[in-house]
Design brief:
By secondary structure, the protein is α/β, with parallel strands linked by helices. It has helices at 37-43, 65-70, 80-83, 90-94, 100-116, 129-138, and strands at residues 2-6, 9-10, 19-20, 22-27, 30-36, 48-51, 55-58, 60-62, 119-123, 141-143, 159-162, 168-173, 176-180. A hairpin with a 2-residue loop joins strand 4 and strand 5. The longest helix is centred in the middle third of the chain and has 17 residues, at 100-116.
């Protein structure tokens, strides 16, 4: 299915100037076109148009993802009374009985937090098997080193939409909407 993501503006690179009135057409897992919204809707009349009240650009790369997922425990909301809601590290982590199942569940919650921040790629490697599996299943691109995101036609459709005041409104991985702020 072809979707046109129509934000207030498009930024082709993390530091690039916003292009007002532009949009991105996504077909499958790839960026099909980037340009003025009026041109894209004329070129793709049957496309679904998804309007966003923010700035669309490349997603963030989490260079510290291995530490974030393998050296911290992300509590389950049902554990909030006993453990709080923030990631546990150091002595607090050491005090927890951790097994592969618990590491995998923690990694999935940590990945959800990353998606809520507009992250579309992470830097590995990941050494814990359960964490590695969670990352592979998430759809996030795993990179050997950080690299800046760029929106180009033909590239994988890894996008993030941020509100004018900063928070991430949506994260799109390979053309699939995986996070949408309520």
């Amino acid at each position: 299915m072809l979707t046109i993501h129509a934000p207030l503006a498009v930024r082709l690179t993390e530091d690039g100037e916003p292009l007002d009135g532009h949009a991105a057409a996504v077909e499958g897992d790839r960026i099909a076109a980037i340009g003025p919204l009026s041109e894209l809707t004329a070129a793709y009349p049957s496309a679904r148009v998804r309007r966003w009240p923010g700035l669309l650009g490349p997603g963030r790369c989490a260079a510290d993802a291995a530490a974030w997922l393998e050296a911290a425990y992300h509590p389950d909301p049902r554990e909030a009374d006993a453990l709080g809601t923030e990631p546990l590290t150091g002595e607090a982590l050491t005090a927890l009985p951790m097994d592969e199942v618990r590491w995998g569940n923690s990694a999935r919650r940590g990945l959800q937090r990353l998606l809520r921040q507009g992250v579309t790629s992470v830097v590995g490697p990941f050494t814990r098997p359960a964490v590695r599996t969670a990352v592979q299943r998430s759809g996030l691109a795993v990179l050997p080193a950080p690299r800046p995101g760029v929106l180009t036609v033909g590239a994988r459709a890894d996008l993030a939409v941020h509100a004018p005041d900063g928070p991430c409104l949506a994260t799109i991985l390979a053309g699939r909407l995986l996070h949408r702020r309520a």
